Amino acid sequence: MRNLLKAFKTELRLTERQKDKVRRSLGICRFLANQYIARNIWLYRLYQRGVLDEKQRRFVTANDFDKYVNHILKKKFPWIDQCGSKARKKVLVNAEQAFRRFFKGQAHFPRFKRKNQQNVKLYFPKNNKGDWTIWRHKIQIPTIGKVRLKEFGYLPQSVTIKNGHVSYEAGRYYVSVTAEIEETSRYNNDLEASYRPQSDGIGV
Questions:
Q1: Which of 10, 91, 121, 176 is the most exposed place for a label (fewest CB within 10 A)?
Q2: How many C-beta neighbours within 10 Å does residue 187 have?
Q3: In terms of domains, do 107 and 122 share one?
């Protein structure tokens, strides 16, 4: 029996306190992504001018930059800790992948993250037993807590959630989760009839 990964996305009904936490976390992730991009732009320009030799580093990985954040940058900006470490690391990994695609000729040069573009998401893996528990009317999001759903019953219950992320789009907050579902199970057939996949629309 094979398990399938299925994505679901729906709108959240956050409290004002939860909205503030999400906005702060998104801002921190955007700040770190831009710091990472700026660092690699500086190194790339040095390389273009022939300043760096073959033994000098021309690219900083997400893992190395995350160490720099934890040991140096957080001392200057202690508010970085207001955002979860997993979400911070994920946005750096995404930025690294963008650079690697550029070096392979598969994408344009990475651009800075801008607030009005809403191109940053908060990623959360399932680390603890209670993470990503889903009820009919609410969901347990790591570091944020229990959050009410705007549409009741849309997200599947009694399935394994592998990870998820929170995003902000046009003044609204959304959660996307990746669920592990048995391919041949009767429950999976019920899901096909009862739920719309992410590509078909957004629960509102």
A1: 176
A2: 12
A3: no
Edge-to-edge, what's the strand order for the sheet holding 145-149? 122-125, 160-169, 172-182, 3-13, 145-149, 138-141
How far the first Cα of the chain sits from its last, in Å, is 33
33: nearest Cα among 106, 123, 127: 123
Tokens of 34: 């831009």
What would the two tokens of residue 186 be? 């009767």
| DSSP reduced 3-state for 192 | helix
User: What does DSSP assign to residue 134?
Assistant: B
What mean pLDDT is reported for the chain?
A: 84
CA distance 68 to 32: 11
Task: Give the domain-ending residue among 87, 116, 145.
Answer: 116
Last residue of a domain, one of 116, 137, 154: 116
Do residue 188 and residue 123 come from a single domain? Answer: yes
Q: What does pTM read for this prediction?
A: 0.79
Query: By the 8 A CB rule, do 36 and 95 touch?
Result: yes
Domain count, the chain: 2
For 125-141, the pLDDT digits (tens) are 888 888 899 998 999 99
Question: What is the number of other CB atoms lying within 10 angstroms of the CB of residue 204?
Answer: 10
